[in-house]
Design a protein that fits this description.
heterotetramer; A: about 500 residues; Dna Ligase, domain 1; D-amino Acid Aminotransferase, Chain A, domain 1; 8-stranded antiparallel beta sheet; 5-stranded parallel beta sheet; about 25% strand; B: about 170 residues; mainly beta; OB fold (Dihydrolipoamide Acetyltransferase, E2P); 2 domains; 8-stranded antiparallel barrel; 1 helix
Chain lengths: ~500, ~170, ~500, ~170
């Protein structure tokens, strides 16, 4: 069934991404917005927009019945969940199906199988995909957790059973940390997924986070689009992603790809999904979980394969076959993504909501800006901090890094603090350029990150003093003979920003 | 024209700056060196500066009397005063440093945990309060050692930016 | 010799493009600016900037000695000429060489050979590259032109002997038009190139303009990067370009590529260059001329080959070998470029200088914005009207067109009139989608182009009336109980743009 | 609250419009239909309008008393007047149409050719003057037939936008 009108059950940059994909296919788009989001970019860009309730996500972006009701009222025939919110909620997928709406994502059963991380681990085990040792069930109590952790051996990792995106994850180095880590992980998991259960895994030392993108159609076609390396993380939140991984060669890619496709097939998976692995220093990979949705970092795969993942999601949801096989998927060059978050990396990474008074995005050759904001927009305090994703492509990893350095230097956000300065220090770090990555990279590098190198102190002082000087001069009568022609002096004209 | 004398204060350091010129072309003297500066506002709050031919773009905003300058990806908060005014203001000697700490909410959110109680001694870096905002838990820590005098919030409470959370003596 | 610091002898988007390319290679950049360009984007983006004189290009951007002097004063070791201005001026290339500066372009002899279009035609003839019949020398007088035109048979095409970029070209359908056409072509050629000579060619009926990009290193390596079709032209100014051409298959591409490389070799060509051909309805191609510089439309070649032409120019100028051969050049998908010019297509295409009060560029997946302007910038009246180039890539031509339609709809320029509305009508035209192109396409389509479809008249009236309504309300005392919290009402706040 | 009545004039047509509401939510009646409109200024001069749930972004600027609205890639110049004011202004009947043509320079540039002389008869579409600007020659044509009364420029002359070039009676 052809999709004619689609409701995007999300906000921010991913809602904008989906709207763009729909527009290119001639699909009309319906945005939804909470009371905090009337002026959000996705509302401005969609063909239609409907209010869905208060700022709190639980009462708006997570309100299944409201969303299905708006979709029907707007005459939509499909729903795209984006990532986060209800993207991995089988109840929502089922409610869409029950209402006759095409859900742009996997069948509810596949979401359920993979959403329950412990069930997913059983599928992986049954399909001979290697895994990190851990519990196949959530731990029922602190006491059980203590016993299991001891059996596995510290350090262990706590993970949300219904999780994804790093929420509810905690590394526990030794037993005394366990109780507090369980509390924090459960609280975060409960808040994020409405289910506080956690399970345990043995922590792998200095692992890389490498994930495989898969696409599966409703006719049995399954392909993988290669890997993304997402080892640059802070508190399990990815910050920099790339494809290909500097640690993966064609042979390893093929083996990981086969393992990922095997899991997708076993789960009856349809649509775009991602199989996450840890890769250890010896090149062994271990299944972590499968994310049954589009990932934040999907653009790096798009840039190297030339395959538009949102377009493929929409085609697959409409029942079309992939129309190509594994041999048709080719990779060219290297792509890197940096997440520009409204956080202050020099003040404990505190979120930095507020009004973006100045915004100049990077552009030019092979620079892609997937943004959810605009100049004048006020970043609300209710949702995550992701403002925009900056993606570059280059013929090889070195060229891509050079381009990312250039693009980050061009990207200016004024009014809220962002991760840009620390991203610049990451991509210029010798270990990053050498491809020496692990999930511990950022913790190792961050202590050396400086707020201000004071490289531009003199210029800053000159700018500040001239602003004051001109403010003083404007208060005086205009000098005789002063002209106002093109190219002449213009400081202090009306509108000096407050 | 006689130069106009200012004092720019940045990060606790104050330094004299002199300016002459106008109509976009200035001579600015600081740190014993004079710079030829060609400066234009290209848009509201955005200045293009050619400092001895080196090109910079600075976003200049005003924040409660201080000038906040974003340049080359770095942010500087600078207080600029006319030299005479600065002299008068600082004649009495530097004011005594602040005593104690008052922890205020750096952004609106919900308190998810209070880690200290009145009377408790804290070390620099001790966790005081955890605030949840924008889907993240953010731990707020003591900047110096001291004793907790007051705890004004409890877990579950919503707070606004600037609300006093904990007072340390 | 490694290039460390480069002077960009140009302005606008191409200066910005070169600066970006240099930055990614770690080369410091020096901008130059006329009195009309102190606030131009290339000045803001370069590492250093120097004034070079009055607004009139003849006294600034065309002032050879001034430019060489500034390059030496700034300590530059190389010069990039961009396109237009001095890009095909052998005297400038020679002056750079004499001053010890690396000229990022071909040797003066090659510029001279190809810059003299009649000399270039002799080279083509000697190398058995097919040509449109015409004069091998400029016509000395109106009388000679009349005789030659009669021999060739009308319609004939007048072309500037030292030309390029469509300047000084005139189609003459019949003899009575000849005198005025000669005058106009000579005037334009003289103003643009400092040489008013023109020559004649027989006009090909409904031809396509298809050009081949070549790269030649200083060690004998020559490759071609396939074709660009640039048939969408108005008064010989290209408006929409694409690669590949819908009229060129692999076999024709190979034959045209071989012909282009043969001419480059015969001319002793080094660096990036473009060999222009006419392609007739039967698939026969005819050599037109060789442009000894980077073309405006180079990005479409970059997007399909993955080869960064500015990077290659800089590498070649530094003496590096290409490092790859023809078999290594591969093509993926389709790319289209639209030129966003400050012209009013609904008022005789009059230039529209002025201040850009609002600017929201398109972005997102596979959208590239190569712009020379910013919000708040005043487009000066002294130079050409090109503001920005919007480039998209797609896995096939249809997908690229869909993407261009989406991107043009996103692109908003307020304050000056632009070509965007007519570009939208071009790329949605059935003939364009079907690939039925010729250099006559635009003249055929333009009469049907409407200024306003009035699709949004109701919305426009609502917006205008609400602005007035709120202006009236702001003049009244604030209503009791009105609040000012997030998401609330904000019309009429200070700063309503005048 | 009683609706406020306006008349919007666009392309020579005038139509009544009524507005009620406020704080971002309005009812707007025009052409016999009432629209529910949710409208916000998202930045200076940029309005987001939800007109019966359909989303539009309009750039709204003021040009010499007329409201210029850019929406969906199209530009509209609209005059909005309160209904009573419009009634008074137009009570005397429409003013007589303009007679003759005055060709003014649409932009600054240099005159490269003058194609007519005083006394000459011109047809609609006849070339009058060629002006060179931004590296292009632009031919300016007569919008209606008439007789050339005055030619105020000559070839080679620089002109500014708005300068009178040719007067046709």
């Amino acid at each position: 069934m052809k999709i004619r009108k689609l409701l995007v059950a999300n906000r921010g940059e991913i809602a904008v991404r989906v709207i763009r994909g729909c527009r290119e296919l001639g699909i009309a788009t319906v945005a939804v917005y909470s009371e905090a989001d009337r002026e959000a970019l996705h509302v401005l860009m969609a063909d239609e927009a409907y209010p869905i309730g208060p700022a709190q996500a639980a009462e708006s972006y997570l309100a299944v019945d409201t969303l299905v009701g708006v979709a029907l009222r707007a005459g939509a025939d499909a729903v795209h969940p984006g990532y986060g919110f209800l993207a991995e909620n089988a109840t929502f997928a089922q409610a869409c199906a029950d209402a006759g709406l095409t859900f742009v994502g996997p069948p509810p059963a596949a979401i359920r199988a993979m959403g329950d991380k412990t069930a997913a681990r059983r599928i992986a085990r049954d399909n001979r995909v290697p895994m990190v040792p851990g519990t196949l069930e959530p731990v029922a109590s602190d006491d059980e957790a203590r016993v299991r952790a001891q059996e596995l051996g510290y350090p262990v990792m706590l993970k949300a059973a219904m999780g994804g995106g790093g929420k509810g994850m905690r590394l526990v180095r030794a037993e005394p940390e366990l109780t507090e880590a369980l509390r924090a992980a459960r609280a975060e998991a409960g808040a994020a997924f409405g289910d506080a259960s956690v399970y345990l895994e043995r922590a792998v030392a200095e692992p890389r986070h490498v994930e495989i993108q898969v696409l599966a159609d409703a006719h049995g076609g399954v392909v993988h689009l290669g890997e993304r390396e997402c080892s640059i993380q802070r508190r399990h939140q990815k910050l920099v992603e790339e494809s290909p991984s500097p640690a993966v060669d064609a042979s390893l890619r093929a083996r990981m790809g086969v393992a990922a496709c095997r899991i997708a097939r076993a789960a009856g998976y349809v649509n775009a999904g991602t199989v996450e692995f840890l890769l250890d220093a010896e090149g062994r990979f271990y299944f972590l979980e499968m994310n049954t949705r589009l990932q934040v970092e999907h653009p790096v795969t798009e840039m190297v394969t030339g395959i538009d993942l949102v377009r493929e999601q929409l085609r697959i949801a409409a029942g079309e076959p992939l129309g190509y096989g594994q041999a048709d998927v080719t990779w060219r060059g290297a792509a890197i993504e940096c997440r520009i978050n409204a956080e202050d990396p020099f003040a404990g990474w505190l979120p930095s909501p507020g009004t973006i008074t100045g915004l100049r995005a990077a552009s030019g050759p092979w620079v892609r800006d997937d943004s959810g904001v605009y100049e004048g927009y006020t970043v609300p305090r209710w949702y995550d901090t992701l403002l925009a994703k900056l993606i570059v492509w280059g013929p090889d990893r070195g060229a891509a890094i050079d381009r990312m350095v250039r693009a980050l230097a061009e990207y200016r956000v004024v009014g809220v603090r962002t991760t840009i300065p620390v991203l610049e220090q990451i991509v210029t770090h010798p270990d990053f350029r050498a491809g020496r990555l692990s999930t511990g990279f950022l913790d190792r590098v961050l202590p050396a990150v400086r707020a201000n190198e004071a490289r531009h102190e003199t210029v800053a002082v000159i700018a500040a003093v001239l602003a004051e000087y001109e403010r003083g001069r404007q208060a005086m009568p205009a000098p005789a003979g002063g002209d106002d022609t093109a190219g002449a002096w213009r400081w202090g004209r009306p509108g000096w920003r407050r | 024209m006689a130069p106009v004398k200012y004092v720019a204060t940045l990060g606790g350091r104050s330094e004299p700056v002199e300016v002459t010129g106008g109509d976009g072309r200035y001579q600015v003297t600081l740190g014993g060196r004079t710079w030829e500066v060609d400066a234009r506002l290209t848009a509201q709050g955005i200045a293009s500066l050619l400092v001895g031919s080196v090109s910079h773009v600075a976003d200049v905003t005003d924040d409660a009397g201080r000038c906040v300058v974003d340049v080359g990806g770095e942010t500087y908060a600078i207080q600029v005063e006319e030299h005479t005014r600065w002299t008068i203001r600082t004649r009495g000697g530097a004011a005594a440093g602040p005593r104690g700490q008052t922890l205020v909410a750096p952004l609106p959110g919900r308190i998810t945990r209070v880690a200290v109680a009145p009377g408790e001694a804290v070390a620099a870096g001790s966790a005081l309060v955890v605030i949840e905002a924008m889907k993240m838990e953010n731990e707020l820590r003591a900047s110096a050692p001291g004793t907790v005098m007051e705890v004004r919030v409890q877990a579950g409470q919503a707070v606004n930016a600037g609300d006093v959370l904990v007072v340390i003596g």
